[in-house]
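Lecture notes, continued. The same structure-token format from the folding unit now serves as the input rather than the output. Read the line below as a description of shape only.
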């Protein structure tokens, strides 16, 4: 799977990396898997880094589906802070589309640089 995560990262509570070939189902599967391992994300700092990826099947409909998956877990996500680092323009645009569709009720920002994302996570 092109999405890997760890809960024992020294800088954040949950560290997620995405590399390689990714399709919309990979993202949905990741989110459903990680939310079965954590009952409450409140207070957690999450760093999601999108590296060199090729996206398949990621379009308006699939991003909308992703927003519905996160909406089902909304109560568990309240109080969490998620910083997404998306270096590539396409990945950055997909995350911005997600934000436009979802407008999450928890802290969620997208960055192009890891340092700025970590600064933001530490400041909130």
């Amino acid at each position: 799977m092109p999405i890997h995560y760890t809960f024992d990262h020294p800088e954040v509570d949950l560290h997620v990396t995405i590399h390689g070939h990714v399709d919309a189902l990979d993202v949905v599967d990741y989110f459903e898997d990680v939310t079965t391992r954590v009952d409450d994300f409140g207070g957690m700092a999450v760093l999601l880094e999108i590296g060199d990826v090729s996206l398949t099947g990621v379009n308006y409909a699939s991003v909308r589906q992703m927003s519905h998956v996160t909406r089902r877990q909304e109560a568990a996500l309240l109080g969490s802070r998620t910083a997404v680092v998306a270096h590539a323009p396409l990945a950055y645009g997909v995350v911005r589309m997600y934000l436009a569709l979802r407008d999450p009720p928890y802290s969620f920002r997208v960055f192009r640089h890891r340092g700025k994302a970590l600064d933001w996570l530490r400041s909130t």
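Point for the exam: The chain has a mean pLDDT of 88.
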